[in-house]
Write a structure and sequence with these properties.
By secondary structure, the chain is mostly helical. The chain has a single domain (2-143), classed as Cytochrome Bc1 Complex, Chain D, domain 2. It is built from seven helices and no strands. Helix 2 (32-43) packs antiparallel against helix 3 (55-65), helix 2 (32-43) packs across helix 7 (130-143) and helix 6 (95-104) packs across helix 7 (130-143).
């Protein structure tokens, strides 16, 4: 019985890690809230905090790579990923700094890690290019409530 519980626990952890890393071929669909946020970014005034990337492309990449921990609209998932819509950390970084942060990720040993869950470099998707990361940043900026 104890071995069965351990095996089930290990299987659940493996599935969680794979989901967090953007693994799998099926990509989740965007929520209406996420689509609205991407449209709002396109309509934002030029003087606002609008990223150099493409928020619409970034939304698709975000949903495929980041939503397992941060939710499809960046609202966060308790115990996994922080709410990106109200993050002071995100607000305090330039687009370039945010891209560098995403490239590096955050280890569980980092004192600023408050979830106890590692954020893998590039959200676990090593194929993301700098341009795609800028698109993700544009989407993050579009959903961030200032």
């Amino acid at each position: 019985m104890k071995r069965t519980i351990i095996a089930i626990s290990v299987a659940l952890v493996v599935m969680l890690v794979l989901a967090a890393c953007g693994g799998g071929k099926d990509k989740p669909e965007a929520t209406p809230a996420a689509a609205e946020a991407a449209q709002a970014a396109e309509a934002a005034p030029a003087g606002g905090a609008v990223s150099q990337g493409d928020a619409e492309k970034g939304q698709k990449l975000f949903v495929a790579t980041c939503s397992a921990c941060h939710g499809p609209a960046g609202e966060g998932i308790e115990g996994l990923g922080k709410d990106m819509t109200t993050s002071d950390f995100i607000a305090g970084l330039s687009d370039e700094e945010l891209v560098e942060f995403i490239k590096t990720g955050r280890d569980t040993g980092d004192p600023a890690n408050t979830t106890g869950v590692a954020m893998p470099p590039k959200g676990g998707n090593p194929t993301l290019t700098d341009e795609q990361l800028m698109d993700i940043v544009a989407y993050i900026r579009s959903i961030h409530k200032q």
